[in-house]
Amino acid sequence: MASKIADLLATLKKPSAKYSLIGLLTVGFFSGVFFWGGFNTAMEATNTLEFCVSCHEMRDNVYQEYKQTIHYSNRTGVRAVCSDCHVPKDWSHKMIRKIKASGEVWGKLIGTIDTKEKFEANRLRLAENEWARMKATDSRECRNCHSFEGMDTEKQKLRGAKMHKIAQDEKQTCIDCHKGIAHHKPKGMKEEDL
User: pTM to 2 decimals?
Assistant: First the structure.
């Protein structure tokens, strides 16, 4: 056993053409840590409210609506920002969402929603895309903060408690009933979406 360890150490200390293998591994390790830290820092920077509203399309449209909702200002002071609802927390789903969001960057570059009029013309399509994403994930981002198990229906208004019970029994998800919770509902919605 000791000879195998000695052989391994000897192999790690052998020079490559110019540097030892252990030196190359050390540099590789620290380069990887540096790259990973920078990558994660950049990913987190794109999840801030300031980043999301840095383009006028968001700042002038949906951000103004969001500021009038309970997710922005409430009695407890807990604020949900854009990424809380629109970006998954776990790494793999977050990366998938970020890759899909690159299509939104293309839309920004070509000016798909760069005016209030264009935004309103596309609002229904954008909302339906987001509702479909949330439905497909069982409202995963909503459930980061809200859960049926954590609800005290005794403290809810009668209608809310009744509807939450029905939603649980029928295996519904948050977005089935809570469209327009943080943004205005688009004109032209289908009857079942109201």
Answer: 0.78
